[in-house]
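Example record used in the benchmark description.
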Amino acid sequence: MSAGEKAKAKTEQVVGKAVRKMAHAMGNETTAAKGAALEARGKARDTKERAKAGFKR
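Model output (structure tokens):
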């Protein structure tokens, strides 16, 4: 897993979580769902990269 891809995945997770929590606290469920989707995309990217690295061994 390259450092750039790992950083991008982690950034998506952190930003998504922050957006989700802030939107949920303010009562904006649409934006909270978008934040949750961004967080999930970061987790999926991380999982995909880990799987690719596992097959390279």
